[in-house]
Design brief:
The structure is a single chain. Helices cover 61% and strands 11% of the residues. β6 and β7 form a beta hairpin. The protein folds into two domains: 184 residues, no CATH class; 159 residues, Histidine kinase-like ATPase, C-terminal domain (Heat Shock Protein 90, 2-Layer Sandwich), CATH 3.30.565. The protein has a five-stranded mixed sheet, with helices on one face. Strands 1-3 form a two-stranded antiparallel ribbon. The longest helix is centred in the middle third of the chain and has 74 residues.
Length: 401
């Protein structure tokens, strides 16, 4: 009785999953993972119905005939046997109901109502059969007892029995449908969560890959400026660039890197830039021995360092200093990239690098991380990241290193 389809879920299918909750799925009845829980629920419900009917009949019989000499109701043994006979019919009707489905209504609802009426109408005849099988003295001839249902005073009792079991069937079917809807909703939520994680992982990979051509483009321009004026320096820079690209590719395949590794990458990049702007660019990096032990998103500093070089030197004829600072506060890690800017520099809107950093922080940490960038009163541009202090490498998504 598994009614949860196993088709691949897309974002559109996820929304449609709730809309088609009542649509029949013929092959979905075969899934063992939900068949047994549904069967257990239906069995427990039917046991409850049986006990309720037996206790009600006994209480009514005791109130109408305290001495127990009259025979107003069937014995409890006959009623238990009646419900046992009805149980496989109930399972078959519910199974058929799920196979038929509920849409389109003009075609499925008449069949669904017919199933319910057939099940409910069999209750009284099966009670007669049960009384006969257990040797009830008032039911020696089954054929006579069955015909009496339609031709004498037992007809109203048959109508009452049919109504009672029709309600019981409706409640049982509604219970299973409700459980199926809960299962469907839970599976949809799990699939949507898996899709969300996969999308985030793909998005992070795309953001990291954006850095590679951007960084390479800037560095090639730096080397090009040295080829004519200082070929040995250009050759040395090419070797350093090869080392940088190896580190860039390695870092681009990881979601998180150690802070010391990130700063080593920054040092290598800034050394290449210093060879081009030796008389203008000064770099101050934190001492590796005093660095806090922390894990950060891979290449999270690189776009900010590139911005510091490009925008720090823009419209600025004097010396430019780029300084990287690290600090810890409670459970937060604070990273700052500070660079000199021209006195008349106007704050510009976020560029590609800043948007990249904001989006990656949001994907990794949500509201637990923040990024701010802007000038201070000392003719400096400060880009500050505040993110959770990760003492150990976080568990990455499947497929990530």
């Amino acid at each position: 009785m598994n009614v949860i389809p196993a088709e691949p879920l897309t974002s559109a299918a996820a929304r449609e999953n709730v809309d088609i909750a009542f649509q029949g799925q013929p092959d979905s009845m075969l899934g063992a993972s939900t068949t047994w829980p549904q069967l257990a629920i239906l069995t427990a419900f039917w046991v409850y119905v049986m006990l309720s009917n037996v206790l009600y009949a006994r209480s009514m019989s005791a109130s109408l005939d305290p001495m127990g000499s009259a025979h107003f109701f069937a014995s409890w043994q006959a009623r238990v046997l009646q419900h046992l006979f009805l149980y496989p019919i109930l399972i078959g009707c519910v199974r058929a109901s799920f196979r038929i489905g509920w849409r389109p209504a003009w075609r499925t609802w008449p069949v669904q109502i017919s199933l319910a009426l057939i099940f409910a109408a069999l209750a009284m005849p099966l009670l007669v059969v049960s009384e006969t099988l257990i040797g009830d003295p008032d039911h020696h001839d089954i054929s006579m007892s069955m015909s009496s249902i339609l031709h004498d005073s037992k007809f109203p009792m048959w109508v009452a029995s049919t109504t009672n079991f029709l309600l019981a069937y409706g409640f049982g079917l509604a219970l299973i449908i409700g459980y199926a809807l809960v299962q469907r909703f839970r599976d949809s939520e799990l699939r949507l969560a898996a899709l969300g994680r996969a999308w985030s992982s793909a998005r992070l990979s795309a953001l990291r890959m954006q850095l590679s051509p951007h960084t390479l483009f800037n560095l090639l321009h730096t080397i090009r400026g040295q080829i004519v004026w200082d070929p040995p320096a250009a050759q040395s820079m090419i070797v350093q660039l090869a080392d940088l690209l190896r580190r860039l590719l390695a870092a681009g395949e990881r979601e998180y890197s150690e802070l010391s590794s990130e700063l080593q990458f920054a040092r290598l990049y800034l050394e290449l830039q210093q060879k081009r702007f030796a008389d203008r660019l000064a770099v101050v990096l934190p001492d590796s021995e005093t660095l806090p032990s922390a894990w950060v998103p891979s290449l999270i500093l690189q776009p900010l360092i590139e911005n510091a070089v490009v925008h720090g030197l823009a419209r600025h004829d004097g010396a430019v200093e780029i300084r990287i600072e690290t600090a810890t506060a409670a459970d937060q890690l604070v990273l700052r990239i500070v660079n000199s800017i021209a006195p008349d520099c106007v704050a510009a809107p976020d560029g590609i690098g800043s948007r990249n950093v904001r989006e990656r922080l949001a994907l990794h940490f949500g509201d637990r991380a923040s990024f701010a960038a802007g000038p201070n009163q000392l003719d400096q541009w400060v880009a500050e990241l505040r993110l959770p202090w990760l003492h150990e490498r976080p568990q990455t998504r499947p497929g990530s290193n």
